[in-house]
From TrEMBL:
The protein's name in its UniProt record: PRD domain-containing protein
Entry's Gene Ontology molecular function annotations: RNA binding
Gene Ontology BP terms: regulation of DNA-templated transcription
SMART domains attached to this UniProt entry: CAT_RBD (SM01061)
PANTHER family, alphabetized: CRYPTIC BETA-GLUCOSIDE BGL OPERON ANTITERMINATOR
Gene3D superfamilies: CAT RNA-binding domain, PRD domain
Keywords carried by this UniProt record: Repeat
Domain of life: Bacteria
Domain PRD: 73-176, 177-280
PROSITE patterns to which the protein is assigned, alphabetical: PRD_2
Cross-referenced InterPro entries: BglG_antiterminators, CAT_RNA-bd_dom, CAT_RNA-bd_dom_sf, PRD, PRD_sf
Stored Pfam families: CAT_RBD (PF03123), PRD (PF00874)
Length: 280
């Protein structure tokens, strides 16, 4: 049975401790049933690897302090569920930003309090999130089911999208507000298209998914100042005049939100996708 040498720095509760890992020379949050029981702070101990259910490195002093605060305030079961969701995510998505241990736990704790108080928050971007971040959405769905089974609290379908955005943000090392903004802008672009074409798009349709993915790719290129060639641009402007009028409104929306200029080449490709919707 392999054992690792640690110095106990802080005992948060019977199941969570902060310890210095002598082998890797770093402070680490260790989690496991009873891992803190009978331990004393500032003492060297050997801990069997099979007793460590989960761990993460606390690189940042602020991360440690925020996590300590959270552990004192939140039900241990919520922390355990949050860590299981993070484990599933890291197995499928790779390493996540360590702040996810604080942000996701805090978010789930608040969401549970909100539901118990009878407050419901609608997620207007749920369809876009499901298309853009399918892996994160799948993991979040399992997390919501876990919460329902263990805590007997149903956070609802919309909450899957919020958890998925937290996972996506930690995956890309960006603020969750940026992920939320991205979903909101896509949703508003869709509203411009629906208004311009006088239709309601079927959000389960393959063409809708293709449209969302193209728009996301266009936004990424615009934000990263990547310009693609469009040799058919003049023909598109001539043949798809109505669609290009809709695109002009989308151009204004994107430029207002990101304070960046949208290349006409991108507008041409967007017009093609809008034209396709007219023939469905």
């Amino acid at each position: 049975m392999n054992k690792k040498n640690f110095r106990i720095l802080k005992i948060l509760n019977n199941n969570i401790i902060l310890a210095y890992d002598f082998k890797n020379k770093e402070d680490t949050i260790l989690m496991g049933t009873g891992i803190g029981f009978g331990k004393k702070e500032n003492k060297k101990v050997y801990i069997s690897e099979d007793k460590i259910e989960r761990s993460f490195v606390a690189y940042d002093e602020n991360v440690k302090n925020e996590y300590f605060r959270l552990v004192k305030q939140i039900d241990c079961k919520i922390i355990e569920i949050s860590e299981k969701i993070i484990d599933m995510a890291e197995m499928k998505l790779g390493d996540l930003n360590t702040h996810i241990h604080i942000l996701l736990t805090d978010h789930i704790g608040f969401a549970i309090e909100r539901v118990k108080s009878g407050l419901e928050i609608i997620n207007p971007f749920i369809d876009e999130i499901k298309i853009l971040y399918p892996d994160e959405f799948e993991i979040a769905s399992k997390g919501i089911q876990m919460i329902k089974e263990i805590l007997n609290v149903d956070l609802g379908y919309g909450e899957i999208g919020f958890i998925a955005m937290h996972l996506q943000s930690a995956r890309k090392n960006i603020n969750v507000k940026e992920t939320m903004k991205n979903a909101r802008i896509l949703n508003e672009i869709i509203e411009i298209i629906e208004d311009g074409l006088k239709i309601n798009l079927n959000k389960t349709d393959f063409n809708y998914k293709r449209l969302i993915n193209h728009l996301q790719g266009a936004l990424d290129r615009i934000k990263n100042n990547i310009c693609i060639e469009n040799p058919l641009l003049e023909n598109i402007k001539e043949q798809f005049k109505d669609s290009f009028e809709i695109i002009k409104k989308i151009k204004i929306k994107i430029e207002e939100e990101y304070e960046l200029e949208v290349p006409e080449q991108e507008l041409g490709y967007m017009a093609i996708h809008i034209e396709r919707l007219k023939t469905k």
